[in-house]
Write a structure and sequence with these properties.
Layout lengths: L2 H27 L9 E10 L3 E10 L4 H29 L10 H17 L4 H56 L4 H15 L4 E5 L5 E5 L4 E3 L4 E7 L5 E7 L6 E5 L9 H36 L16 E4 L2 E4 L1 H5 L21 H7 L5 H42 L3 H35 L1
Antiparallel strand pairs: 1-2, 3-4, 4-5, 6-7, 7-8, 9-10
């Protein structure tokens, strides 16, 4: 081997190991960076007989386990969807009051009936009538509080859907743009993985990868969302039910062309999928349950009150006790303003209600055992059960997603022990090549001195 070949060989080894050291240092510096795939140094023999011998190096991203990566996207999507539902239902449940507070509408209704039982023993007491009216209003206020909480979650879901579809569209555009440069950039590959991770938390996706690092993203039913050739955008429409649509995007002008008006069936995961389930299924069902319970209670109370009369009267009251107001119920304003007018007597056999006749109040108190009261209790139970079930499912999904992510990172993430070992190896190789260069230099100096 000539001195020039030896020198070129050592220089190539010096340069290759310098790149490998740089890649290893980058790995160590990014040990805690999310979605960072470690850089791997792949050495190749590079030789031209009698002219050059040496090595070259290629720095590439660690190959991800495609199964684990897709599983990670799927588990993140499920966790985000269930968390969106659980958080909303927890806030609805909070409208019932904390544990032991007995502030929910079922308990408030029972308390109102208990006050009417007390009133039946003192039917002439205007103060007792005022308390009974107040307790009834408290009960129907509790119904309204829960209905308002459900309505607020529906409004918040619409707002969040609008924001998150816009974010998903930005991510799809970013993935399209990164696809253009990823074959020449390891950093672009990391950026794509970060975008995909965020996107999977918004909508359930399927991802396929080319050998050059480019990705194709589609919905769960195969509708293309983004690849190297173009990308699509999600559209959101509110109304009686929330709807997610799909439009193709002109990369040059940004012009949208609707391709599907409703892809809700394909959007079941991610935060967007969870919000759709909330908006279109979970919250409307709970609202119907609470509305029906309030209506049943109001109907039963009015039916009982319709047989009551004021003291000394023989004809039952024509004025309802509970009236519908602004989508809810409350005690008739005329009665609430004049508690003494609350009819608690009950005429019998054509005789007027007597001064000490509280049988009308007792009839309302007896509604504590009516089916409508059980319906209200069942509604409270249903809200609590739905919130707890959603919370447990969310916690399970988050734990599963974390486990899958840990396994994925063990495949493509940074292991400090391994990187430090590689660093020592590359440094020693670098030093060995440096010594060869020094030895060749001494030989050249010796030859020059001889001349």
């Amino acid at each position: 081997m000539s001195l020039s070949v030896a020198l070129n060989t050592a220089v190539s080894g010096l340069s290759a190991n310098q790149e490998a050291i740089s890649a290893t240092s980058e790995n160590i510096a990014n040990v805690n960076t999310a979605n960072f795939s470690r850089r791997e140094a792949n050495f190749f023999t590079d030789a031209i007989p009698n002219q050059f011998a040496g090595v070259s190096v290629e720095i590439s991203r660690a190959g991800a386990n495609r199964f684990l990566q897709n599983s990670a996207f799927s588990s993140q999507s499920d966790a985000a969807s269930l968390t969106a539902v659980a958080d909303a239902l927890a806030r609805v449940e909070a409208s019932l009051g904390g544990p032991g507070a007995n502030a929910d509408f079922a308990n408030a209704l029972n308390e109102a009936y208990a006050v009417f039982a007390e009133l039946s023993a003192a039917p002439s007491s205007v103060a007792a009538k005022a308390v009974a009216i107040s307790r009834l209003n408290d009960a129907f206020d509790a119904f309204s509080r829960t209905l308002d909480a459900i309505d607020n979650e529906s409004i918040a879901a619409d707002s969040r859907l609008d924001v998150q579809t816009a974010r998903a569209n930005q991510l799809l555009e970013d993935i399209f743009n990164l696809n253009q440069i990823v074959p020449e950039s390891n950093g672009a590959g990391d950026e794509i993985d970060a975008k995909l991770a965020e996107l999977s938390a918004l909508i359930d996706i399927t991802v396929s990868r080319g050998d050059d690092g480019r990705v194709a993203v589609a919905t769960s039913d195969g509708r293309l969302l983004a690849n190297a050739g173009g990308y699509s955008a999600l559209t959101f429409a509110g109304g009686a039910s929330a709807t997610i649509g799909l439009a193709s995007v002109d990369p040059d002008t940004g012009t949208l062309s609707q391709t599907a008006a409703d892809i809700n069936a394909a959007v079941t995961g991610g935060e967007i999928g969870g919000l759709l389930a909330l908006r279109n299924t979970e919250l409307p069902a709970l609202r119907t349950t609470v509305e029906n319970a309030a209506q049943a209670a109001a109907d039963d109370i009015n039916a009982a009150y319709a047989l009551n009369a004021s003291v000394g009267q023989t004809s039952p009251q024509a004025t309802p006790l509970i009236v519908a107001v602004n989508g809810g119920f409350e005690v008739n304003a005329a009665i609430a303003a004049e508690p003494a007018s609350l009819a608690v007597a009950r005429p019998s056999g054509g005789l007027p209600g007597g001064a000490n006749d509280g049988s009308g109040a007792a009839a309302i108190a007896a509604l504590g055992d009516a089916p409508s009261t059980q319906t209200a209790a069942d509604a409270v139970t249903q809200i609590g059960a739905a919130a707890r079930s959603a919370g447990e499912r969310s916690a399970t999904a988050e734990n599963f997603a974390a486990e899958i992510e840990n396994r994925r990172l063990s495949e493509s993430g940074v292991n400090l022990d391994e990187e430090l070992s590689n660093l020592i190896l590359f440094q020693r190789s670098y030093n060995a090549n440096a010594r060869v260069i020094a030895a060749v230099d001494e030989l050249y100096q010796s030859l020059l001195n001889i001349l």
